[in-house]
Write a structure and sequence with these properties.
Layout (H helix, E strand, L loop, with lengths): L5 E9 L43 E8 L4 E7 L1 H10 L13 H11 L7 H22 L3 H4 L7 E7 L3 H6 L4 E5 L7 H19 L4 E5 L6 H12 L3 E5 L7 H10 L5 E4 L5 H10 L5 E2 L8 H14 L3 E2 L5 H8 L8 E4 L16 E2 L8 E3 L11 E2 L12
Parallel strand pairs: 4-5, 4-11, 5-6, 6-7, 7-8, 8-9, 9-10
Antiparallel strand pairs: 1-2, 2-3, 4-13, 12-14
Helix pairs in contact: 1-3, 2-3, 6-7, 7-8, 9-10
Bound molecules: the ligand C[C@H](O)[C@H](O)CC(=O)C(=O)O and magnesium ion.
């Protein structure tokens, strides 16, 4: 069957809302004294926005086929990513068939390799890849998860990331991941406060509920090892992204140092099969956490997941809403998914990519039926009531 060819690629920047790096208003738990690599500077300790976490904004990529069908995706990267998409990547799509996603990915990656490989460029590339899968699904009338081989279970189950695992438990989630609030620069007192917060949460949720700590690249091996051992006494299930993503050696050491039974997880700021191969071959962790919108998109996720599967490792993607749900439901080595609580007080389930997406499914009682994904493509529409700014054209 010949599908319509790709006619046009467009890239927009959006301010406000969204998940994680996207702009959140004041008083949101996600920007409240979270330990980061910048916490060593007191003036950048209270708010991640103070050092510019939200400086780029959201990237929206649209790919229009010659019959007028539009696929789209949302990720991070903002205006600089718009430039890369419009001025560089678009040439590898326009005039081509949307079925050629392997060749398109290969050309996008290798043509940008001299200035890319990770970070912003791979965010942009991921946005294009996700928009392409959305377009393909819309043209074929199939959900992305069908194109990935179909569901291996009837429903997704979720853990929640946010400041209130106790409320997440009441909402039916299988676990709660809290941000770590104090980094090494806050010394022994900070460590003590981190452990006290964990202990307090353990007392609220009881002995069996999963509790995890997200350290957002803020620690060193020594601090992370001490934190892990002290947290073990309070039943911490995993310690996440404790070190710089470049410190593969440190992760390998932390994995050796961690108490038996505690999982070491990382990878949300890693990209491509080559980056994840490093994490896997160097025995850096137990669970890898690629973000579908940052690691190279669905086309690359398939390869990353296969590498992990062959090594008996789990893939539990970072956030990314529908873009990860369609993947997780198709893989046995992705037994559960993350839900990032975007309600400012983490006290309600609200869509992760609000207000950019319309029709975004959310977990109910910590679960989501596969049938909630049964719409063409990623099953969501772009909210055209938001201000979409197209800074570049080609
Ligand atoms: C809460 C973390 O600091 C970060 O904002 C989200 C994240 O890393 C995760 O969901 O994982
Ligand atoms: Mg994380």
């Amino acid at each position: 069957m010949n599908l319509p060819k790709i006619a046009h690629v467009r890239a927009y920047v959006v301010r406000g809302g969204g998940a994680d790096y996207h702009d959140q208003g004041e008083g949101h738990w996600i920007d409240d004294h979270i330990a980061t690599p910048m916490s060593r500077y007191p003036e950048y300790r209270q708010s991640r926005q103070s050092f510019g976490i939200n400086v780029l904004g959201t990237l929206v990529v649209e790919i229009e086929a010659s019959d007028g069908t539009i696929g789209f995706a949302v990720t991070t990267g903002g205006e600089p990513a718009c430039y890369i998409v419009e001025k560089h990547l678009a040439r590898f799509l326009e005039g081509r068939s949307p079925t050629d996603y392997e060749k398109i990915w290969d050309q996008m990656y290798f043509s940008t390799q001299y200035y890319g490989r990770k970070g912003l460029v791979v965010n942009a590339l991921s946005g294009v890849d996700l928009a392409l899968w959305d377009l393909l699904g819309k043209l074929r009338g199939e959900p992305v998860y069908h194109m990935l081989g179909g569901a291996v279970r009837d429903e997704l189950q979720f853990y929640a990331t946010g400041a209130r695992p106790d409320l997440a438990k009441e909402m039916g989630f299988i676990g709660g991941k809290m941000p770590l609030h104090h980094g090494p620069a806050e010394g022994e007192e900070g460590l003590h406060r981190n452990i006290a917060e964990l202990a307090e949460m353990r007392s609220r949720v009881g002995p069996d509920f999963w509790l995890m700590l997200d350290c957002w690249m803020a620690l060193d091996v020594n601090y992370a090892t001490r934190l892990a051992h002290r947290a073990h006494e309070h039943g911490l299930k995993w310690i996440e992204e404790a070190l710089s993503p470049d410190d593969y050696w440190g992760y390998a050491e932390l994995k050796r140092n961690a108490p038996t039974g505690m999982l070491v997880t990382t990878g949300e700021h890693e990209a491509t099969r080559w980056g994840f191969r490093m994490l896997l071959e160097m025995e850096c962790c137990d669970i890898i956490q690629p973000d579908v919108g940052w690691c190279g998109g669905i086309t690359e996720m398939i390869k990353i997941s296969a590498l992990a599967d062959a090594r008996g490792k789990l893939v539990v993607p970072h956030g990314s809403s529908v873009y990860s749900y369609h993947f997780v439901i198709t893989r046995h080595n992705s037994p559960f998914a993350e839900f990032l609580m975007m309600a400012p007080k983490a006290d309600a389930v609200v869509p992760m990519f609000h207000p950019q997406l319309l029709g975004e499914p959310t977990p109910e009682n910590g679960r989501m039926r596969a049938s909630a994904l049964d719409k063409p493509g990623f099953g969501v529409e772009l909210n055209r009531d938001i201000a979409l700014h197209r800074p570049y054209t080609h």
